[in-house]
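Dear support,

I submitted the protein below through the web form. The confirmation email said the job was done, but the results page showed an empty box. After a refresh the structure appeared. I'm attaching both so you can tell me whether what I see now is the final result or a partial one.
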Amino acid sequence: MKPLLRFAALALLLAACSSKADTSQTDAGEGSAADATVDTSDLSDGTIDDVLDGSAEAPAPCQPILGTDCLAPWPSAYWETPAGTRTGWRIDLPDEVMPADTRGNRLPATDWNRRDGFSPNTPIVVLPGVALDAALLPDETRPALAFAANLPILLADAQTGAFIPYFAELDSNATPSTAPALIIRPWTPLREHQRLVVGLTTALRSTAGESLRTTPAMAALLRNEPTGDPRIDDHLTDWQTDLTTLTELGVDRSAIVAAWHFDTASQVWTEGPGIVMREAFRAFAGDGAPPFTITQVELAEETAALFPALPTAAADPRVTYKAMHPEVALRIRGTFTAPLFLTSADAAGTLNWNDATGTLDQNGTVERPFLLLVPPSALTATTPPPTLIYGHGLLRSACDEGCVEPGAAELMPHLTALLGTVTVATDWWGLSQPDLPVALSAGANLALLPRITDKLAAGAMMPFLAGRIARLGIPQHPWFARADGRPFADSATPPRYYGNSLGGIMGTTMVALNPDIERAVLNVPGGGWSMLLNRSSNFAAFLTLINRNYPDRAQQQLIFAMSQSLWDLSDPLTFAEHVIAEPLVGAPANRRALWSVSLGDAQVPTLSAGYLARVTGQPLLAPAAEPWPLVPSVSTLPFAGSAFVQWDALRGNWPAGNGLRSPDNGAHYATRWMPAFQQMVYRFLLGDGAIEPRYCLAADTDGALPCTLAQTIPDAFTDQPAAPELPPPPVN
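What the results page shows now:
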């Protein structure tokens, strides 16, 4: 989002601080909505404690394996219980062990206890209680990609025994009086329905040079004896097998300080809800557009002559004659009807789980906004213009980026004019401008986080319906039948997609689910929302509230890790493989996607883009300024296919670690207005789809244009760069 909006959000947030604000996909990869039932019996009621009054009749269970926190290490099978689920397990968190804010309000355990395992995208958080030596950790700049006997941390697949690459970091946000949390991140997200074994060795040492102490329970496991804790001893063989897995990997048993395992959730719990909603949206739209209502039409009076059936401004208040932006000849606003899978359509709505039947149920329908732009060239073109779905940025809206007045500079109309498309957008439900109060409330009380994460999941397919309106709805509307008989838009060619920032993040999920989109450009993307919370400058305001209400920084890391299970339902790391590698039923057979990454990005850190690349299975075009281990590289160009492209506007000047990149360093905006970037977008979306070296890859290291931070967002239309020389005309 633009800096101005972020500062406005911060001002609102600081004002709030001064008051007392409170499936269907199976494990085999099939895509049937009938198969997405989830057993959710025997759940806690999820109520939030008013105060921590210590009135529990029996002491709460407390993990005895490692560290100083009852709930960590996270995740751990200590918080699993046998169940008749796909994995054979269900999360089992008592309410009394859940993290609490300064007023004693605990996170409700219900959202976790529904699931049959932990997030495959989760970080592993250890609260050791002592300051560890960071120099001993394989960090993000030198991850542990292969087993070595002297590694301080070991990750292994319990079924195959294979070493799992990872990196580890200490929380750079810790206060001087608190031992930093140890955060372990598998280098590639885990699989669904996978058991991971974690081991810490004597090579992990404190800043004083001492190894971590083995707890009595862990010492008992190392002796092959019961621990006295029923949550472990009832499944003692599983816990003892952890040690066997590690020793067979190659580590000496005497070097193991702590070991535990956990199970990741099945596809029914990661992808399943998204697939259920996808199929409902597909059925709802059928082969056409959803029901929609036009609320406003804006155009010049002379343009209205092209549409003889359009009411005059005097006859219908929905029609307005006005001086239009030079890049917009016609602007249409309205609403469309979509399936609703939330308990309500208001701010308090969360996913409509039916715990009695174990299903995610539709709850009627909801009206959502759309905005459609038509550039002057589309009205004079001899062939009908193609359609483009546009994805806006964080805490903005479709109208923020498309309801422009003459003299303003915004990328949505500029790109519309450049491509000559009929462009449509809707709001990303959950993280658009109208959702800002909900985001602030969630920062003050993280128990409200599902009001964001669930709306992101429930809204992921809304752009699909908006695209149908642009391609099949408005062109059939009697108001827009042209006097010369020219079609309003190309209804035969599949729509294209372009998104920035949040539009690149959620755009990846949406493209994976969308059965229509054939080509997509996802600019400054990433994946793994829990990873972004500490690293993105966009969350500075959000973290201000979290620091006030959850001041223990170690507990914060635990909560961020726990939150990934909530983000999973719409996280691009969950769905990215379905963009190209394993497309869902009904997706275009020849789909292509281009992910454009700005290295050192303070808003969507490059680390998260690397994770996205490893999930998609698509290559990184070479030469690359920052090689990504385990991502294939392609150096034969032009390249016709799906790929990641790096832009190095900062010339290699970006920090590692989980610290906040604030203030913003400008890299996030360094590509979208570059003529070379726009050339690449045009050719990829509308031309032959090839990518070639002249489009400013990392080989451009001379400091000259176009790879330079001098290319910033223009403040006014007159500041916009000249339209680039475009590649050859589109190929039919």
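Response: this is the final, complete result; the empty box was a page-load delay. Residues 1-56, 701-710 have pLDDT under 50 and may be disordered.
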